[in-house]
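Re: that chain you flagged

S.,

Sorry for the slow reply, it's been a week of failed gels. I finally had a moment to sit down with the sequence you sent. For the record, here it is as I used it:
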Amino acid sequence: MTKDTLLFEIVLLVNDIIKFGGDFMKIRLPNINDEEQYTEGKQSIVLIGANGSGKTRMSVWMDENNPEFDIHRISAQKSLNMPETTSPSDMGKAEELFLYGVNQENKDWLKKTGKKVYRWGDKPETYMLDDYKHLMEYLFTDSYEKSIEYRESHKLGNTDFDNITNLERIKRIWEDVITHRKLEIKAGKIEVIDRDMDTETPNYNGSEMSDGERAIFYFIGEVISAKSNSVIIIDEPENHLHKSILIRLWDAIEKEKPNCIFVYITHSLEFARTRMNSQIIWVKKMVTKERWDYEFVEDLNSANELHLEILGNRQKVMLIEGDRNNSIDIILYSKLFPEYNIISLESCKTVIETVKSYKRTENIHYTEVVGIIDRDRRNDEEIENLQKDNIYALKVAEIENLFMIPKVLETISKNQLKDDFNEKLEEIKEKTFEFLENKKEEQAMLFVRESCLNKVNVELNKNIKEIDKLENNVKSLFDNLNIQEIYEQTINEFNQIIEHKDYIKALKIINNKGLLTYTSVPNYFGWKQKYFMEYAISLISSNSEDGNTLREELKKYIVG
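Prediction finished late last night. Pasting the structure tokens below so you have them in one place:
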């Protein structure tokens, strides 16, 4: 192993420790009953509570009481006035103005005092933050310096050299979120193009964007421009944003700064549920300037539900089956299909009916509405018929089974430096077949019940307008429904899977959430099931080659 390779592996290991419970990024919180409180090993922290409960003041306390970290806070009260034009300046001075609001040679003073006095007007809890000008100056200075570096490198013959600017990174994310607009980066200014207009339509200055568009640019720019390994505090991340793009935007921003910890102050339970490896903190009230009544929330199921509503927007919609409190479903699908607004409905039937009803609506506003449902022992013909209506059934029995696909296990093993994966995979397969053998009769009964119900539903959903014909069809269905034969065929199919050691087919038919635990997959990596799946999703959502591979592999088992 070369020195560079070893260094790379160490960096990966450190990142894993930071994300999954190590001793790094230990964030101090206000005391509870005179006992010191910390949260560590988390990718994000969410402060949630009623208006006036003191969430913002608590975040200011965290900013001032974690001096070992670079902390960049984005206020809910802020000016979104983007300057029409911007001139580059000295890089060091531009960065200091952006981070602290003032230039000063004494860097320690900048962090401890300068930021509070100049960036926050000595009133960090209530001051109207007005740093769009400083942000743009820093961005254009970065772009100017990198342009010179790029030109000089290519003049020397290094044609492979590239150094992406922060403005280019912002443009990429912004255009992924605002799909009907494009940004053009010009000398000292940003211009906007409407994708839906003809080529003769003039561009307009970025300062003329809507509040939401400017807010998205601002949020992306603030985070990208923050220092690496920072704690980034965002007060009201939903401010000026439609809920349909909220999750997608912050997923993309977090992915761009994987070495930072994000602290969100929000009213949205739905948004809080989608944060990966997050510590949820319920802020009840502020008792004094140094003390809050708050508690750590491990289960959001007991929190008041927010009503889901499908509102007109330009984003495609994906309806999924399941409890909205089961965040694994929503998180996984949001990573795999970032172009969709993911909405969870209570049942398979509701997903099917809703997708079909939108498909029948002539003047539907969405460009596309699709559904994802569990396989529920449907046969291939039933699944093909559903796909005609843009409803897709998983090609494995349970969403948890997706995490047992060999490519997923292989990639996790590689990233965890496991050198005995091939032997372990064979052991997992044998345990899977053993599980099927032990649960064969139980699984067969489930299959028979579901098969019968599916056949009845297919018949009842046919467009039959005469009651006599419907009655005859249903009677004929029951007369020809040989339950014993279905059961025996199912048992025989299971025996064939076990005999031929067909692992993928086993994952396709085993409908039991206990399979992961039984095969000891999480234990192999030293985690509980929850952290195993969270780690897998973190790989799936990464910008790495492994992330791209896993996303393409998993999509084969969802939409084909």
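What I noticed first: The two ends are 39 Å apart (CA to CA).

Talk soon,
D.
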